[in-house]
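Sample pair:
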Amino acid sequence: MSSDAIRRVRPAAYAVCVEDERILLARWIGADGTRLWTMPGGGLDHGEDPYDAAIREVAEETGYEVELVRLLGVDSENFLIPADSVTPQPRDLHGLRIVYEGRVTGGELRNETDGSTDLAAWIPLAEVSELKRVSLVDIAIALYRDRPALGRIVR
C-alpha cells in the first residue's frame, strides 16, 4: 500500500435473518454501478451503538423491523479502493463488521430508495452460492451456521 492512500476504519453492523431456509439480502450498488448482494446493514453513525445501527440499517434497506437475537461474531477485512473522479487518492479501508442474528418482527418487505441498495429479497440458502455477492454474505452465513465460540471465521 502506498503511503499516499487515505486510511480509514469503517465500523458497520449487520443482521442475518433466516426464515424457512431463506436468507434476507439486500443488493448493494457500487460507485461504478456494480450490483452485488450483501447482508442488510451498514455503517455506524458517529456515537451509534452497533446494536441500534443494525436495527436501523435493516429497516432502511428492507422495510422490516427486526429484533436482534444474539451476537454471531465480528469480521475484519481490508479493501483497497482505487482513486476515482470523486476521491483522487486511493483508499485503504479497514472494514470492521459486527454480525448479529436477527428475527423479523414487523414491517413489510420493500426496496430502499435513494440509498446504497436498490433491492431487498428473501433468497433460498441453497441458491446463495449462485449470486454475485460480497464476501460478507458467506462469512455471515458461516457465523450463523457454525456459531464459533470466538465469533470469528478464519479464512
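The chain has one domain: 6-146.
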